[in-house]
Design brief:
42% helix, 4-stranded parallel sheet, binds FE3-S4 cluster, 424 residues, alpha/beta, globular, 14 strands, 5-stranded parallel sheet
Length: 424
């Protein structure tokens, strides 16, 4: 791998042992990928905190949080002191909501261990956003900006909606990037892999959040890890629609970048999305594809009695909380059902101030933060049947927790929460 003088100096220990271990990791990782250089990044999103019983026990045996950080963030058997970050770095979602340990099935000592680790990570200079949607909280990369982000739904959003450049990174590579401002120059950092190779023509209106989730789910199943272009949109999709679309596409498939003609900065036209080349394959998405996809997502749904309604995957925006509060105003969540809405802490603060939390809580619902049911593997006790307005969550909860899942609109989900039944 070609290294600049600055990178060689970091590798050789000029900036301390943690940076040297991080450079060693990035060089090994880049060579495995076939990258011949590193690219500079000043925007990193990853996971640094420790929050599991396994890591707590490891810390006790191996010598504290420095040892956990060295082993699990830098892949270093040598224990190095935790450094400060150089890149603007944001923390992604956690494995539980630390404000509600009993609901999350975690013990108080694991929460205490997490809090020590969170204090260490904020001292490093990492922004403790604790969300899969850092772009809601002010981390909004610009077109062409090289980033190093984890979390598939966030990666596809910033690549495709904002025109930023990132691959789907991992805990170790983002940790190394935070302290070196480098990541392998490979994949979606380069022009050629960003060009679309497959084309979708819309032949049915795609308007609602549900419509966008279904289109994304259908497209991900077909495209897998390739890059699609989509033409024929009617009205311009807003942030909740685009976040649902990408999250669904990266769940049924592994899409990290799509070109939505007229939305994606690199796709002002169909031709531009393909960089002048011909598509390898074209498919049409019509009413038949939509109906078949809805049936497939709902394949696990058998019982119409619903135990749990989960909203907020990816984490709800304030607009979506406002909408849910309006749907719930003056109603009551059914005695046999629970309603949990997941959002970043900063947005919950806004919901508190706006009075939406009070409306939702007086209806019997709750707003939770920092995590989600799929990440925390936490659902209200006794849950067998869940309803959600997210194709991603409907995809994962049956696989992770063996639940039956119903997918539909937010209004259908609120109706299910208030009646305890899925009406479809
Ligand atoms: Fe976010 Fe959890 Fe969905 S982390 S994207 S709410 S699976």
């Amino acid at each position: 791998m070609r290294l600049s003088d600055d990178e060689k100096a970091m590798r050789d220990g000029r900036d301390g042992p943690a940076v040297a271990r991080a450079m060693d990791l990035l060089i090994r990782y880049g060579e495995a990928l076939g990258a011949d250089a590193l690219v500079e990044t000043h925007n990193v999103c990853g996971t640094v905190t420790a929050s599991t019983p396994f890591l707590r026990d490891f810390a006790l045996k191996a010598g504290g949080l420095d040892a956990v950080y060295s082993e699990f963030n830098l892949d270093s058997a040598e224990v190095v002191p935790v450094p400060k970050v150089r890149a603007f770095s944001s923390h992604l979602q956690l494995g539980f909501d630390p404000h509600h340990p009993a609901d999350m099935g975690v013990t108080e000592d694991v929460v205490q261990f997490y809090r020590r680790s969170e204090a260490m990570v904020s001292k490093m200079g990492v922004q403790m956003m604790n969300t899969c949607t850092p772009y809601q909280l002010g981390n909004v990369p610009t077109r062409g900006e090289h980033c190093a982000w984890m979390e598939s739904s966030a990666v596809v959003y910033i690549n495709s909606v904002l025109g930023a450049r990132t691959n789907t990174e991992g805990r170790e590579s983002t940790s190394a990037a935070m302290i070196t401002c480098r990541i392998p120059d490979w994949g979606y950092h380069r022009d050629e892999p960003r060009r679309a190779t497959l084309g979708v023509t819309l032949e049915t209106p795609v308007e609602t959040v549900e419509d966008w989730g279904l289109l994304g789910y259908w497209m991900g199943e077909w495209v897998q890890e390739r890059v699609p272009a989509v033409r024929g949109i009617g009205s311009m999709p807003n942030l909740p629609r685009l976040k649902h679309f990408g999250a669904a596409a990266s769940s049924s498939g592994g899409i990290e970048l799509f070109h939505l003609v007229g939305v994606t900065p690199e796709a002002p036209t169909w031709e531009a999305a393909f960089g002048g080349a011909a598509p390898h394959e074209l498919r049409a998405y019509g009413a038949g594809e939509r109906a078949a996809t809805l049936e497939r997502i709902n394949a696990t749904g058998r019982d119409t009695q619903v135990d749990y309604v989960m909203l907020g995957c990816p984490h709800y925006t304030i607009e979506q909380i406002w909408e849910a509060a309006q749907l719930l105003e003056g109603r009551r969540v059914h005695a046999n059902c629970a309603l949990w809405i997941w959002t970043p802490r900063a947005i919950k603060d806004l919901a508190d101030r706006n009075g939406y939390t009070a409306v939702i809580e007086s209806a019997g619902g709750r707003i939770l933060t920092d995590s989600c049911s799929a990440m925390s593997r936490a659902v209200p006790s006794g849950t067998k049947v869940v309803a959600c307005d997210s194709a991603k969550q409907a995809h994962y909860l049956p696989a992770i927790l063996g639940l039956q899942a119903w997918f539909g609109t937010t209004a259908q989900c609120v109706e299910a929460a208030c009646t305890g039944r899925w009406h479809g």
